[in-house]
TrEMBL record:
Upper lineage: Eukaryota, Metazoa, Chordata, Craniata, Vertebrata
Protein name listed in UniProt: Protein-glutamine gamma-glutamyltransferase 2
Listed PANTHER family: PROTEIN-GLUTAMINE GAMMA-GLUTAMYLTRANSFERASE, PROTEIN-GLUTAMINE GAMMA-GLUTAMYLTRANSFERASE 2
Family the UniProt entry places it in: Belongs to the transglutaminase superfamily. Transglutaminase family.
GO biological process, one term: proteolysis
Main location as per UniProt: membrane
Positions that bind Ca(2+): 398, 400, 446, 451
Substrates-to-products reaction catalysed: L-glutaminyl-[protein] + H2O = L-glutamyl-[protein] + NH4(+); L-glutaminyl-[protein] + dopamine = 5-dopaminyl-L-glutamyl-[protein] + NH4(+); L-glutaminyl-[protein] + histamine = 5-histaminyl-L-glutamyl-[protein] + NH4(+); L-glutaminyl-[protein] + L-lysyl-[protein] = [protein]-L-lysyl-N(6)-5-L-glutamyl-[protein] + NH4(+)
Coiled coil: none
Cited Pfam families: Transglut_C, Transglut_core, Transglut_N
Keywords: Acyltransferase, Calcium, Cell membrane, Chromosome, Cytoplasm, Extracellular matrix, GTP-binding, Hydrolase, Membrane, Metal-binding, Mitochondrion, Nucleotide-binding, Nucleus, Protease, Secreted, Transferase
Record text on cofactor binding: Binds 1 Ca(2+) ion per subunit.
Keyword Calcium attributed: yes
Active-site residues (renumbered): 277, 335, 358
Encoding gene, per UniProt annotation: Tgl2
């Protein structure tokens, strides 16, 4: 027999990509999911493959120093039956000189970039052909994969969906912000693999790092550390919270992860400026979805940052309601992290499922700024000893807040205040643009027997389970929404639930604030020395907050913190109520003109009305949408936008993919920043 000569081959990128749900990553490279077969075609010249005469085998390798023992290299012959627990190759069909072969990885294979080599031998003669590279990803569709997710709608939302909503604002006024995750956009997959190869664990021991890339727990921990740059590890984002962002992008201005990851790559893996919690979480979510791990961004309202680990956050207020910063413990208005879905074979049974990963640099874990994966079930049960970092997240959703009122002579009085931490934990619903409340996955109902049990296990007695002044109640209410550029009222509502008259002093103080709890200058106050409450009576006391007072010091988080102190003259008891008022930005209007079809030009008309009493200068719009626009489109407006006038422009774009997509818009100017809007667009497929 003459030698078997391989002339051409076809990795069938398009067909395999379609079957492996990776087609949107482009048909220039072969991207497949582990545990699922993929087909390649081999074309021999001269004569075809003869069973029993010719032997065919494949070599696959990943990482810089592949070895069989660590799973980064495999040599396997073409056989008649697939092998479940190892790499295998099976002949599918033969047509003359053309041979179709199905290759399959085990569902526990290492993810990453592989090289593929074919070895042919006839008798003693053999040849070797390097036939290209492919990328292997986690597979949420395979029951044996540790990231297997049963529900198809959930797999679509948490692995395949390229856009989503991130919840912000305040507990009393939850807002959603559109985000372009863009995990299938050009170059993002190679940037994510590059991120794995930049991590310090890889640089320390490349072979060990690559051999652990079969484990989503390990990958999640690496990604959580690499999205921030706090360890001099060439991480993706630099965090900043002081409202001074002139030498970079304000965290509020981003609308997607693609721009951030591309900047990181283009600047030679220098950190991109600047991120805050939702930016870190969204970028980590993009990387995890890109690698095939089901992931979502979650928001916890009134999130505790307990630096000394005692599950108590002490806050100090002056008698006028001004906050004093005495400890590093903080209550953030909201805090975002990521949940990724995976089994935890490293733990006892019962902890599979959603795992919390927090890439925002807050505390070190095993010497590195990363957090998780922490099983959400372990947080709920108070199992603080389990890996990784359960106590930190347990505190974020469960810590107690104690407000101390500091008198002029320096003495302190503990106030009465209802439980606030860990409210309305939120994520985008599956398949819809609505909010899903997942608080129950993190904690048992407040005041329940089960909650007491968990706190007992966590050695934590919650003070709010014990005290509440039955007689006097204090609440802060808003009559209607507070709009940027307008004056508005907040009301302190005081009620006396006893049959005796009560004499009190009421103080109200409003200050602009950032979402991480720090406050700026005062923008409104009131002091009523003698407020008398009849038995069973309720009084509502208004505080007018003027734009001319808050406009200059409002941060990009658009928050005003209102503190009310009610002191009862007779007992000296002090009741504290706090409310974060979210100042609403104007709406961005988006009209789509034309017939929304794949590869057909569409026009978006985008506009916004200036609600302020002064002109807006240096105005520009940024628009992007996965599969809709070609990257980011920026439109600078030449003229200032006068009060009550419209800023508008038209954008042409040609959608590349059919299906539902979000066109996401951000508006920036000197006085109005980080204004977001989006429009869902359903693109009809091109007729075949």
């Amino acid at each position: 027999f003459a030698d078997l000569v391989l002339e051409t081959w076809d990795l069938q990128c398009e067909r395999n990509g379609h079957e492996h749900r990776t087609a949107e990553m482009g048909c220039q490279q072969l991207v497949v999911r582990r545990g699922q077969p993929f087909t390649i075609t081999l074309n021999f010249s001269g004569r075809g493959y003869e069973d029993g005469v010719d032997k065919l085998a494949f070599n696959i390798e990943t990482g810089p120093c592949p070895i069989e023992a660590s799973g980064t290299k495999s040599h396997f012959a073409v056989t008649d039956f697939p092998e479940e627990s190892a790499w295998s190759a099976v002949i599918q069909q033969q047509d003359g000189g053309s041979l179709s072969v199905s290759l399959c990885s085990p569902p526990s294979a290492c993810i990453g970039r592989y090289s593929l080599t074919l070895e042919t031998s006839t008798g003693y003669q053999g040849s070797s052909y390097h036939i290209g590279h492919f990328i292997l990803l986690f597979n949420a569709w395979h029951p044996e994969d540790t990231v297997f997710l049963r529900d198809e709608d959930e797999r679509h939302e948490y692995v395949l969906s390229q856009e989503g909503l991130i919840y912000q604002g305040s507990r009393d006024y939850i807002t959603s912000m559109p985000w372009n995750f863009g995990q299938f956009e050009d170059d993002i997959l190679s940037i994510c693999l590059n991120l794995l190869d930049t991590n310090p664990k890889f640089l320390r021991d490349q072979n060990r790092d690559c051999s652990r890339r079969n484990d989503p727990v390990y990958i999640g921990r690496v990604v959580s550390a690499m999205v921030n740059c706090n360890d001099e590890d060439r991480g993706v984002l630099a965090g900043r919270w002081d409202n001074r962002y002139e030498d970079g992008m304000s965290p509020m201005a981003w609308i997607g992860s693609v721009d951030i990851l591309k900047r990181w790559k283009n600047f030679g893996c220098q950190p991109v400026k600047y991120g805050q919690c939702w930016v870190f979480a969204a970028v980590a979510c993009t990387v995890m979805r890109c690698l095939g791990v089901p992931s979502r961004v979650v928001t916890n309202y009134n999130s505790a940052h307990d630096t000394n680990g005692n599950l108590v956050i002490d806050r100090y207020l002056s008698e006028t309601g001004e906050e004093e910063q005495r400890s590093k413990d903080m209550i953030w208005n909201f805090h975002c992290w990521v949940e990724s879905w995976m089994a935890r074979p490293d733990l006892d049974p019962g902890y599979d499922g959603w795992q919390a990963l927090d890439p925002t640099p807050q505390e070190k874990s095993e010497g590195v700024f990363c957090c998780g994966p922490a099983p959400v079930q372990a947080i709920k049960e108070g199992d603080l000893q389990l890996k990784y970092d359960v106590p930190f997240i347990f505190a974020e959703v469960n810590a107690d807040v104690v407000y101390w009122v500091v008198r002029p002579d320096g003495s302190q009085k503990k106030s009465i205040h209802s439980s606030v931490v860990g409210k309305n934990i939120s994520t985008k619903s599956v398949g819809r643009d609505s909010r899903e409340d997942i608080t129950h996955t993190y904690k048992y109902p407040e005041g329940s027997e089960k909650e007491r049990e968990v706190f007992g296990k966590a050695e934590h007695e919650k003070s709010s389970l014990r005290e509440e002044d039955e007689g006097l109640h204090l609440k802060i209410k808003l009559s209607e929404g507070a709009n940027n550029g307008c004056d508005f009222d907040v009301f302190a509502v005081v009620s006396n639930n006893t049959d005796t008259e009560r004499a009190c002093r009421l103080r109200l103080c409003a200050r602009t604030a950032s979402y991480n709890g720090t406050v700026g200058p005062q923008c409104g106050m009131k002091d009523l020395l003698n407020l008398t409450l009849e038995p069973w009576a309720e009084k509502s006391v208004p505080l007018r907050i003027l734009y001319e007072k808050y406009g200059e010091s409002l941060t990009q988080d658009n928050l005003i913190k209102v503190v009310a102190l009610l002191t009862e003259h007779q007992s000296g008891d002090i009741i504290v109520a706090i409310r974060d008022v979210y100042i609403q930005n104007p709406e961005i209007k988006i009209r789509i003109l034309g017939e929304p079809k794949q590869h057909r030009k569409l026009v978006a008309e985008i506009s916004l009305v200036n609600p302020l009493a002064t002109p807006l200068h240096n105005c520009f719009f940024v628009v992007e949408g996965a599969s809709l626009t070609d990257g980011q489109q920026v439109k600078e407006l030449e003229e200032p936008v006068e009060p009550q006038a419209q800023a508008k422009f038209r954008l042409d774009f040609v959608p590349r993919q059919a299906g539902l997509h979000k066109l996401i818009v951000d508006f920036e100017s000197d006085k109005l920043v980080g204004v977001k809007g989006y429009r869902n667009v359903i693109i009809a497929p091109q007729p075949k």
